[in-house]
Design goal:
single chain, 98 residues, 5-stranded antiparallel β-sheet, alpha+beta, SH3 type barrels, 2 helices
């Protein structure tokens, strides 16, 4: 997968990835892709403003991919629902590595 570039892959391949929004009111915000929401959309959450109970729907064209969210990515692909604390930890770890 190309890192830090606009997305050109299917939404299913993005589950568990750390992304940044590049369009809309939330431009520049970092999220974890938690689910697929259609042919060209995903659901994203950050554990703060957008928790697991209220994810945001984003078009994949409006996202920049940074890479997997560590062990959280494997859990999401297996179908497990993480907590908001785990989302915040995954985003914090990805920010420290950057």
């Amino acid at each position: 997968m190309i890192v830090d570039r606009p997305v050109r892959q299917s939404p299913a391949a993005l589950v568990g990835m750390v992304v940044t929004s590049r369009a809309g009111r939330d431009a520049g915000d970092r999220y974890v892709v938690i689910a697929v929401a259609g042919a060209d959309a995903v659901l994203v959450a950050d554990g703060r403003r957008r928790g697991m109970g209220r994810p945001k729907r984003k078009n994949v064209k409006h996202l920049v991919v940074h890479g997997p969210a560590g062990a959280l990515a494997e859990r999401l692909r297996a179908g497990a629902a993480p907590t908001d604390e785990e989302l915040r930890a995954a985003l914090g770890a990805s920010t420290e590595g950057a």
